[in-house]
Write a structure and sequence with these properties.
single chain; alpha/beta; 7-stranded mixed sheet; 8 helices
Length: 280
């Protein structure tokens, strides 16, 4: 499946950016690869009930980065695959899985090439999210890739940061450090957003090269419509006020270890999940 030349160029810039980010992320406290953060801590409780029994099932995690979540599927007995565009990330993911004694078959590829790399109609579950959708220039093309990866009766499970979260920014005025306002687009339509930053979202040193990355906005309705248009049946749509890490300084940890806005703040969705099934 092909993209236009400009989108291809932007994706290649993202590949270089993620290669540069990877050693910083491996060493960061954020990911806890030293064992300080178990893989399952990145999953909401309802994800496991929505996913169901995974033992013996073929599961692929698209845009898996370091595989910090991917290994949780292998720990639950799934025949597990991971795919990511970054060669550095895939190499790190392989080391992480090996250190845990887990068999995960990782592949380096752009997600749009996943069917050619992994094979069509073979997976029981395609899993993705938590920072993946924003790197897709064409959501309809992606949805067709997901459909073609699934075997009849298999399903996609997407657990992704809510587009409202990406639209919010902190208010800088003195005395309002905990306030949020709409700063960025929720909906698509303006094309790629270029972000040039030496700092990644984790702790650690600054990037020294490949500092530019590109993101695309996709509203929740756009994602649902793309999946339905690709021939998947929408079974579950969830919205959640929690995140697995504190995006804003005002967020507080709950008993489950996930983070919410303060009690006095409005309840808004920060994460959403979709289960969509290919017909048998």
């Amino acid at each position: 499946m092909t993209l236009d030349p400009e989108s291809t160029r932007q994706i290649e810039a993202n590949r270089a950016n993620w290669d540069a980010r990877t050693p910083i992320h491996v060493a960061s406290a954020f990911y806890g690869i030293d064992g300080s953060r178990p893989a399952e801590s990145w999953f909401a409780d309802y994800e496991w009930s929505d996913l169901g029994e995974l033992s013996g099932r073929e599961v692929v995690h698209l845009q898996c980065h370091l595989g910090t979540e991917t290994v949780a599927f292998a720990q639950r007995g799934a025949v597990t695959y991971g795919l990511d565009i970054s060669a550095e990330a895939v190499a790190a993911a392989r080391r992480i899985a090996a250190e845990r004694g887990l068999a995960v078959d990782y592949h380096e590829a752009d997600v749009h090439d996943a069917v050619e790399v992994l094979g069509a109609g073979r997976f029981d579950v395609v899993y993705t999210g938590k920072g993946a959708v924003c790197y897709l220039p064409d959501i309809d093309l992606w949805a067709r890739v997901v459909h073609d990866l699934l075997k009849p009766g298999g399903f996609l499970y997407l657990a992704e940061f809510h587009p409202l979260l990406d639209a919010l920014g902190e208010v800088p005025e003195p005395g309002r450090e905990d306030s949020l306002e709409l700063r960025h687009d929720y909906l698509s339509g303006r094309g790629a957003i270029a972000k040039d930053s030496t700092r990644t979202y984790t702790d650690g040193p600054a990037l020294s090269s490949a500092t530019t990355a590109y993101e695309w906005r996709h509203g929740a309705g756009e994602v649902v419509t793309a999946l339905a248009g690709a021939g998947l049946r929408i079974e579950v749509v969830r919205e959640d006020e929690r995140l697995p890490w504190p995006r804003f300084p005002s967020m507080v940890a709950g008993d489950d270890g996930w983070f919410r806005l303060p009690e006095q703040a409005p309840r808004i969705p920060l994460l959403y999940a979709i289960r969509a099934r290919r017909s048998g």
